[in-house]
């Protein structure tokens, strides 16, 4: 029959074996975990190297485009990107100006509201304010009224200035229009005068004068000299003349 000491020894050996197995399993797990971490790092390294190579290609392409733009030998696409960049830069400047204006306006409004909160005077319940609060409210409302009055004067001044500029530009426009009308009228007169002078010169070339025509006709047709033939007729007897010529009544015969 085994003794209890021997049983304890067997139990201790079993426990040691279990501990060794657990140590072995934990080492294997750690090794597997390290392998996974190494694989993950390799993948990350490959991804980073690919990203770096793509960025280098992009930088080289951008440098090439920049050189082409500076040299003035850029294509239409590069010009389009240049125009977009310039437009975006102008827009950024405008937005920066608006941001600075809004910052100044915010500071001004904070200065206005430094004495308290702006309240609507129409919907105020005077019963819930103390005398000190009412005095502060009165000062605040007075300040708002002065600010609004100054803004109104600024708006009136701007309106007057712009109206004067408008009338001045309108007068300039009318003067330019009158000058253009006068210039057009002068041009039309010159055109008509030139057309009339050309027509008169052409008519004088195609229609010769009367003296020139007569001279040309007399010189062109030769003069033919003709001699009239004289016919010799026989003399008539007195009797034949008397018989041929009848006597008028009331006249006597000539012996």
From TrEMBL:
Region called Disordered, residue ranges: 1-37, 197-255
Keyword Transcription found: no
Claim: Coiled coil is one of the keywords in the record: yes
Keywords annotated in UniProt: Coiled coil
Coiled coil, from the record: 127-158
Stretches with biased composition (Basic and acidic residues): 1-12
InterPro entries registered for this protein in UniProt: DUF4600
Amino acid composition bias (Polar residues), ranges on this chain: 216-229
Ranges of compositional bias, category Acidic residues: 13-32
Domain of life: Eukaryota
PANTHER family for this protein: COILED-COIL DOMAIN-CONTAINING PROTEIN 169
Protein name per the record: Uncharacterized protein
Species of origin: Darwinula stevensoni
């Amino acid at each position: 029959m085994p003794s209890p000491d021997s049983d304890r020894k067997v139990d201790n050996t079993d426990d040691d074996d279990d501990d060794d197995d657990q140590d072995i399993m934990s080492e294997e797990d750690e090794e597997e975990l390290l392998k996974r971490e190494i694989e993950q790092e390799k993948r990350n390294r490959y991804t980073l190297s690919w990203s770096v190579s793509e960025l280098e290609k992009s930088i080289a392409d951008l440098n090439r485009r920049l050189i082409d733009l500076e040299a003035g030998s850029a294509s239409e696409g590069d010009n389009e990107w240049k125009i977009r960049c310039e437009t975006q830069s102008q827009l950024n400047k405008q937005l920066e100006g608006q941001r600075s204006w809004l910052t100044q306006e915010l500071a001004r409004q904070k200065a206005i509201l430094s004495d308290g909160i702006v309240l609507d005077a129409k919907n105020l319940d005077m019963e819930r304010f103390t005398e000190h609060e009412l005095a502060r409210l009165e000062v605040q409302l007075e300040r708002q009224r002065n600010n609004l009055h100054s803004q109104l004067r600024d708006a009136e001044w701007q309106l007057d200035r712009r109206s004067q500029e408008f009338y001045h530009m309108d007068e300039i426009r009318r003067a330019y229009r009158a000058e253009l009308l006068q210039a057009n009228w002068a041009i039309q007169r010159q055109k008509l005068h030139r057309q009339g002078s050309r027509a008169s010169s052409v008519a004088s070339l195609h229609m010769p004068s009367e003296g020139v025509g007569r001279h040309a006709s007399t010189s062109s047709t030769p003069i033919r000299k003709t001699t009239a033939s004289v016919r010799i007729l026989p003399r008539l007897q007195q009797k034949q003349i008397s018989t041929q010529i009848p006597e008028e009544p009331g006249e006597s015969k000539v012996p």
